[in-house]
């Protein structure tokens, strides 16, 4: 059990389970992009750990870049996506893999896909560690998905509760009162 700002969280997905799943996603990406030079575009802050482990598990040279958007406040998605750091890399004609920690309502991802499509990449695929299918309000395909989870709040392995807990090496879920 772990306490963050007076809320209790319990272990949910262990580091071992995460890394096993990440390795299997890495194998799929290696096969799919064997003769290509994909650009991994991670969404900060939440995906920093997933991005590091996923790309380290891939046995080929790939491009790495980051953008920063925010839509969450505390425990809830605001639905309003704010762009804090834009794209610094040239995307035109490239094979892009968006790397996300979690797709919840899908609003952030829908925003990102729209924004990227205007820059004419050759292809766009999504790698997301987590998906909450029951919260999803948008329609897109996640080609590389770690885990589907029910609609409860999680922290750790990149994910935060009000700015804390991103450093935890496994995923915890909020303890219901
Ligand atoms: P969406 O736009 O509603 O899909 O929200 C996606 C973003 O909200 C993710 O990139 C996370 O940063 C954040 N988020 C969604 N669910 C959780 C959660 O359970 N814990 C922590 N952050 C979350
Ligand atoms: Mg995020």
Q: Specify the biggest β-sheet.
A: 6 strands, mixed
Indicate the structural class: alpha/beta
Large-scale geometry: globular
Small-molecule components bound: inosinic acid, magnesium ion
Proportion of residues in β-strands: 35-45%
Q: What's the helix count?
A: 3
Question: How are strands sequenced across the largest beta sheet?
Answer: 5-4-3-6-7-8
Low-confidence segments: none
- What is the β-strand count? 10
| Averaged pLDDT | 93
Give the ordered list of helices and strands. EEHEHEEEHEEEE
N-to-C span: 14 Å
Radius of gyration: 16 Å
Helix content: 10-25%
Helix/strand layout:
Layout: E1 2-4, E2 7-13, H1 15-32, E3 39-44, H2 48-56, E4 63-73, E5 76-85, E6 95-103, H3 107-117, E7 123-131, E8 144-148, E9 154-155, E10 171-174
Parallel strand pairs: 3-4, 3-6, 6-7, 7-8
Antiparallel strand pairs: 1-2, 2-10, 4-5, 9-10
Magnesium ion (MG) binds at residues 43, 46, 101.
At a glance:
By secondary structure, this protein is of the alpha/beta class. Helix content is 21%, strand content 37%.
Polypeptide structure, described:
It is a single chain. By secondary structure, the chain is an alpha/beta fold. Helices cover 21% and strands 37% of the residues. It is built from three helices and ten strands, in the order ββαβαβββαββββ. The protein has helices at residues 15-32, 48-56, 107-117, and strands at residues 2-4, 7-13, 39-44, 63-73, 76-85, 95-103, 123-131, 144-148, 154-155, 171-174. The model has no long low-confidence stretch (mean pLDDT 93). Bound molecules: inosinic acid and magnesium ion. The site of inosinic acid (IMP) has 19 residues, from strand 4, strand 6, helix 3 and strand 9.
